[in-house]
Design a protein that fits this description.
Chain B: This is ChrR family anti-sigma-E factor. The structure holds two protein chains of two kinds. By secondary structure, chain A is mainly alpha-helical. Chain A is built from ten helices and no strands. Chain B is α+β, with helices and mostly antiparallel strands. Chain B has a domain of about 110 residues: Jelly Rolls. Classes of the chains: A mainly alpha, B alpha+beta. Bound molecules: zinc ion (ZN).
């Protein structure tokens, strides 16, 4: 089964929901069977993109590579903690990358984020419905992001693709910080409405 | 717990993107630990990060990148995290009023906080954090008293842990968060019989402060 899954990896732009289904199968294989080739598929998919984010956020070549390796090592070690009802695999890996970066580049404790994760594990009961919603989340959020007005999209891209602080976004776009805030707020609101419409 | 005042969407997005200063991150994380609604909301904000990661252009990896990682995995003992059973944590302990992200910093009980009297009826406990330009502290304010003025000119965020206060924006009880922009003027008054205990993050009041408030500052100690 995994062989088939990996062959699909090369096809261009699969239909909605299949990315998440494939990634989830790979994570499960890593968690349950310590499957190295499933892990390699995840590495091929996410490694270059994680590194791209780190480079975009100002890390040099060596540090970006190193952080990417650290993130993927965490994916290998913590695969069993991935919970589909809390979001897509790409979202889970994004949060690992975010935390690794806070830990290393900003030299800040990531404990609050880890604690929230612990609370989530303890208090969220998985249900078939929430799992289905989270599975669709990835594609729907991607589609919804495309539909945002460009000025909101720009703010989101800088904040998430490049981990750019709000104050620097304001400087780069030559906007008051209040405008950056309100665009962020509007973008969130619009995404939420889109998700509710599509559900 | 019925929560009426939630986090601003901009704060949720900044938390999700890892852009909050540590002091604010602790307040946001503490509210999220107490609030089902905002826990769902932050997941959507994090899904934005997931979608951005999916659409990221690929950067070139260094030669033999996977082989190196693979060797690292083989060389170390397998420290895989096992699926954990659901355990009671301070945050879902129904009697506890210290959310987990805060209990990591002050311990599990509000009764053991080393309060310092600043003015009659107002106690304060500063929480030291590394690498922050903001301050994080707890306040305990007696019934009927006004909250001290603090941090005007900068953003502030207040999470109520025990008791309640009211101001022009309404009543704030346990779990409620006042996530305020810099322009908001407010004068909260404690309206619970017992003292109101809250967790506050403020941008360090520096250049924004006028001379009068600078003179007042030592008095309140904030
Ligand atoms: Zn909330």
């Amino acid at each position: 089964m995994l062989k088939v899954l990996r062959m699909e990896e090369t096809t261009e732009d699969p239909g909605p929901n299949t990315d998440q289904a494939r990634h989830e199968a790979l994570i499960t294989a890593v968690a349950d069977n310590r499957d190295k080739s499933a892990f390699e598929s995840l590495f091929v998919r996410f490694g270059p993109r994680i590194k791209g984010m780190m480079l975009g956020s100002g890390a040099g070549e060596d540090l970006a590579e190193d952080l990417m390796q650290e993130v993927m090592l965490t994916v290998w070690r913590k695969a069993a903690l991935y919970a589909p009802e809390r979001g897509s695999v790409s979202t889970w890996i994004f949060t690992i990358a975010r935390n690794a970066r806070i830990d290393r580049l900003r030299r800040q404790p990531v404990q609050p984020f880890v604690d929230v994760e612990t609370v989530s594990i303890a208090s969220d009961a998985p249900s078939a419905e929430s799992e289905m919603i989270a599975g669709q989340h990835g594609e729907i959020v991607r589609a919804a992001l495309q539909k945002l007005p460009q000025e909101q999209r720009d703010v989101i891209d800088l904040a998430f693709n490049q981990f750019m602080p709000q104050s620097e976004i304001a400087k780069k776009l030559n906007l008051p910080i209040g405008t950056v805030k309100s665009r962020t707020r509007l973008a969130y609101k619009k995404l939420k409405e889109n998700l509710e419409d599509l559900r | 717990m019925s929560i009426h005042h939630h986090l601003d969407a901009a704060s949720l997005m900044r938390y999700a993107a890892g852009d909050l200063d540590p002091a604010f991150a602790v307040v946001v994380a503490s509210h999220i630990a107490m609030c089902d609604e905002c826990r769902q909301a932050v997941r959507l904000a994090e899904a934005v990060g997931g979608a951005c990661l999916s659409d990221m252009p690929e950067a070139a990896l260094s030669d033999g990148s996977f082989t190196r990682l693979s060797r690292m995995i083989d060389a170390a003992p397998d420290t895989a995290t096992k699926r954990r059973p659901v355990e009671a944590t301070p945050a879902n302990d129904p009697d506890g009023d210290v959310p987990l992200p805060l209990s990591s910093l002050i311990g599990g009980s509000l009764d053991d906080v080393p309060w310092r009297l600043v003015v009659p009826g107002v106690y304060r406990h500063k929480i030291e954090l590394a690498d922050t330009s903001s301050s994080l502290f707890m306040l305990k304010i007696g019934s009927g008293r006004k909250m001290p003025e603090h941090g005007h000119g900068g953003t502030e965020m207040t999470l109520i842990l025990r008791g309640s206060y009211s101001d022009s924006m309404g009543r704030f009880g346990p779990g409620d968060v006042a996530d305020l922009d810099e322009h908001v003027e407010h004068q909260p008054v404690v309206d619970s019989d017992d003292p109101c205990i809250c967790l506050v993050a403020t941008e360090e009041p520096t250049r924004f402060k006028g001379i009068v408030s600078r003179l007042m500052q030592p008095l309140v100690g904030i």
